[in-house]
Amino acid sequence: MTHPTNPETPAREAQQARRASLAVGLAPVVVLLALLAVVVGLIEPATGLLYFVAGVAWTVYEMYRYLQLVDEGSEAADTTAAAPAGVAGGAGPAGGL
Question: Is residue 1 pLDDT above 50, yes or no?
Fold first, then answer.
């Protein structure tokens, strides 16, 4: 998606997509390992809960930033796109009859 005023937006979007993908892929693994460590007795349950909360917070934060960047790009595309010729007020093919 090309941003009219910032040509770096596709690069930023790709970088943010990688960060969000990393969070979605890595956070469940970390939470699972923390749960396993709690079950085995290597860490306290409170510490395992903190790992869980941190993983969820990281994933939500990265997804929020990614969606915010995508929304900015779509808003910019909406403002630069012109309405097709002959379309006024959302009238259908019959001209609103």
Answer: no
Helix, coil or strand: residue 21: helix
Residue 32 CB partners (closer than 8 Å, separation 6+): none
Alpha-carbon distance 64 to 66, whole Å? 5
Q: Length of the chain in residues, anyone?
A: 97
**pTM, to two decimals:** 0.61
47-83: pLDDT as tens digits: 999 999 999 999 999 999 988 888 887 777 666 655 5
Amino acid identity for residue 31 in this structure: V
Residues contacting 10, CB < 8 A, separation 6+: 1, 2, 3
The CA distance from 55 to 66, in Å, is: 17
Task: Quote the tokens at residue 75.
Answer: 């808003």
